[in-house]
UniProtKB/TrEMBL annotation:
Cited Pfam families: Cation_ATPase, PhoLip_ATPase_C, PhoLip_ATPase_N
Domain P-type ATPase N-terminal: 18-73
Region (Disordered): 470-492, 1220-1243
Organism: Anaeramoeba flamelloides
Enzyme class: translocase
Identification of the protein by name: Phospholipid-transporting ATPase
Amino acid sequence: MRQDSESRSIKVNYKIGEEEEQIFASNVILTSRYTTINFLPKNLFEQFRRLANFYFLLVIILEYFPFSPLSGTVSLLPLVFVLTVTAVREAFEDWQRHKSDRDINNAESLVYDNGQFVTRKWKDIVVGDIVKVHNKEFFSTDLVVLTSSENEGICYIDTCNLDGETNLKIKQGLKSTYPLQDEKDFDGLDMTINCELPNNRLYNFDGNMVWNEKKESLSNKQILLRGCMLKNTQWVIGVCVFTGKETKLMMNQTDPPSKRSTIEIQLNPRLLTIFAFLAIIGLVGGIAAGVWQTKWGTKAWYLGKVMDDSIFTNGAFLGFTGFFSFIIVCNVMIPISLYVSMEIVKLIQSLFINWDEKMYHAQSKTPAHARTSNLTEELGIIDYVFSDKTGTLTCNVMEFMKCTIGGFSYGTGVTEVAMAAAKRNGQILEDPRKKYKKKKKKYNSEKYSKKKTKKTTNIIDEGNVGIPLLDQVSTDDTSDEERKNKMSGNELGEEFNGEIPAFIDDHFLNHLNDKEHENSEFIHEFLLSMAVCHTVIPERDQEDPDNLKKIVYQAASPDEGALVDAARMLGYTFHSRTPDTVTISNNDEDSTYEILNVLEFNSTRKRMSVIMKTPQDEIKIFTKGADNVIYERLNKEQEEAFGETTLDHLEIFAKEGLRTLCFASRTIPQEEYDNWKKQFHEANTSLVDRKQKLMDVAELMERDLRLIGASAIEDKLQKGVPKAIEALMNAGIKVWVLTGDKKETAINIGFACSLITNEMYIQQIDSQSIEAMKEEIETCKEQMAEHYDNGGVVLVITGSALRYALMDEIRDEFLAIGIKCKAVVCCRVSPLQKSQVVDLVRKGVKKSVTLGIGDGANDVSMIQAAHVGIGISGQEGMQAVLASDYSIAQFKFLKRLLLVHGRWNFRRVCIIILYSFYKNMAFAFLQFIFAFQSSFTAQTLFDALCISFYNVAFTSFPIMVLSVFDQDVTSKAELDYPKLYSGGDRDKEFNFVRFWTWLLEGMYHALVLFLIPFFLWNSEPLAGNGQTSGLWGMSITVYTGLVFVVNLKLALHVNNWTWIHHFTIWGSIIVWFVFILLLGEIPLLAPSMYKVAVNVFSTGIFWFTVFISIVICLVPDILIKYFRREFKPLDYHIIQEREKRNLGPIEPKKPEQIALKPTISIFKDAFKKKVQMLVNGKKYRHTGSAFNPGNSQGVVSGNLIVGTVDEDYELVTLNNTDNKINKDQNLSSSGTSSGQSSESDEL
């Protein structure tokens, strides 16, 4: 056993002595963060890293000094409560992690020991142990396969827990270890495994095995990773190579990048301004205290012996201590409860996302899932959406639609993209499958069964259609029309799945069956390459294993599955695989091909190849991949034959939105293969840079290829994608599509999903040098200037050009162009480029919020680079979901996630922050104002318990309820009017001015709440028993007014009242009265408050003072809200009015058509018209705008909504805004009065 800087060497089944040091990690897993010993100090350290918590700790420490006006013990209670709640939550979460770790570490596996397999706990397994795993058991460590219960040592594993992929993977031991079947075979096994050091590369493993003086290569094909499950295999035996934290599973358990919401980031500088304001208050109070002491303090005889002490008569000392005293008194200006409240509110908002039935995908039984609660409000301020195409905008369910073989194009199907393109040009294309479905009704099977043929056509029934097999040419006398009906699979297709296939073409059928045709050989080779060049695993039906049409293909990608399915449909059925062979059934005959080597696909190679030996003992290589990659490796003479024709076909396919792959082959001489095999073995057994060496060796074989043809597969758009993208763009969100597809495919998909319209100018950039890139950017600027106001510009850039665009020299210019475009499409891009584009916009566009959405592993970097990452739980596994902040099943749900939940949550989080600071500012500023009356002694106006319970009991629950349940408009309205998302009020929700406006209003309310009682109580009121109330009587009066004002102000911001709003708002006020009455009855808690509340409540002046204070505080708020809604309404005000009158949604039309008059004018004219119609005896129809009770077909507020309206109302065309509106006839005074009355009643 050894390990150095490059590799580790493992002696199989080696037992470490007691004195030997274990050089490898143990198999104990620890995912918990805390232990019993370090929980308290570590948790407190983490919590006090928060600036607010640390601030409150400092304040409490100051409160224990003699000069503090407050008791540190009382003030400690809220902080302890906050810290305890957080600590309990984290302790519970960590306890669950401990429990999970304990269960995993104590799980059991079979380990070879002393001639037999014995049970051993996972935590006791060490590197070098031989482990046996049974079917449906998880692997305890990373193992190298030795043998299994299946032929030739193969086994099937489920990697769902590792990468989220549900398709089974095939693994296989080396040929030399197949015979190790019995326990006795492992006794005295002299075997050494040399392998790479532990790393997080899930799909790579480099190593070799030395056994019986023979060195053999180990690759990813032999590795079984911890966390995976054995499936469809009775048992497997392997050698442990990585344990515990060194397994690939644990090496990938890194924390996702920490993301903070924009509001949370903006909150910090606002907190600093409050800290500065608090320091100013402390400075003013301290200076005033020092000045007062110096001038008048020594004359204050009523202070008695306190002033005889020289230290208290020193003005400088009192000024110094006064600074800290005022900071202590006003420390509540920073709401300590805000963080706890926000955590609870965001958690509930996340649960609402999870519970939203309208984002539940019934077909896959997948709900939306909020994987984090930190970013709920971020969903409401998205500026840029970066989307993958395949599997995100499309279904990632592939259908073989067309192909080009030997220069001939086959397939008559019509794609959704082609239909959309035809529709844009005023044409209509019909899917041929619809035509065949119509003809199916006329088809008479008996008619054809009675026809005589010279040679019976054998039509396969394994596929979707009945197509004659190769070499079986029908010579019947049916017409072409009848043959077309027959080909469409009317009866035989139904035996498979009852659907008409996407691939339909008579010519293909004829060329396939005519051996004399020039293309027959190419078609045979094309179908054969589709059937063998893949890594698909066939799963037979357990109840009917001999039925080939019931085989289910487990494919690593939907493309591979579609190609193998298409080959089966066309007569070449792949039905069996061993580690070294594949078997194809054609014409009821099986042909077995020996797989010599598989040169696997990766994002760098963009191709895969299979080297095989045919039944005729020929060695051939079949290669499939991207067109540019395949064409670089073609034989030049053969390329000239039909290479250009094939490229023309590929361009046509791309314009129809089809995904294309080129196929090529070559016959390899035996001698050449033997020489190459040695080089391949050397590269494959290397432990250093194996991947690059294998790529270099593959290049030697993938050359001088003969082009066969290309496949074209349709990936249909998901339902609702065009409407979703249109809504997002109407909401002011810019959509960038980042895809690996060809440029033509990407453009046409853009048209099909409404990202691109006919009015937009498409600017394409495909530069191959930095100089060309600079020139194209200049050209793009000119086009932007010409088309910016005429439909806009869509930028389409290829991956090769993007490489230059992202260089430091021109990245800023490229970004400046991109952000001005209506949309951007980046095609042929790599996963790295996706993240680079997101990062470019995120860092280059200030205050922008980005969202990345994708469904595959290649989208993970993009998702994590964006402010918000959305994972689509689709066909490509769960890696994107696992890396995301939110997951949804379909792209269309993004519309609801942003426009409904995002906007609601953004407004809710803004209001909870603003209101929390407002109510605390009002409370703290009251203390400062009182200092002017108390000679700046920092005497508190309120009792310590009242101070402590202000945030906890009397003001916290109403705002939490509002932040969870409030809806300014309904979800339906949010979706009907996307402009609401980016309306003019969004930027004002939490800007600096609005933040301080709320704080200034808190100061104003504090001033009113103090001065009104101060002047009204100038001559102290007497209670019923003749007692005066004193300081604490005024304190209760001010506090009561404060509780009323802050709760009623919140009530003014409630948009939809529910019982829980009433319960919390009025309940909080009632709780205050109950609290203060109980406090006055328990002298031990507050001796100074004993019986004060009862006395104060018995005076009339108390209730009058409270009432007047409430009126003076809130009347300005009411007037501002009224005049704002009356004369300068926001977009959501208009929608609220429409919803109140049940006017229904508006059908928008083009902006240049029609718009309504300004809202307030419509408001007045509409009621005049209503009265006039009533006077004339006409029945009034409810039609009109948001401010008049009607059912119009259009309404406008600014640029919110455009549409048509009922003909009874006068319109203003947007093209001529200077046109005057004809006034209605003057009405009688009674009519006007009636109209005004109606207007008032409506509001």
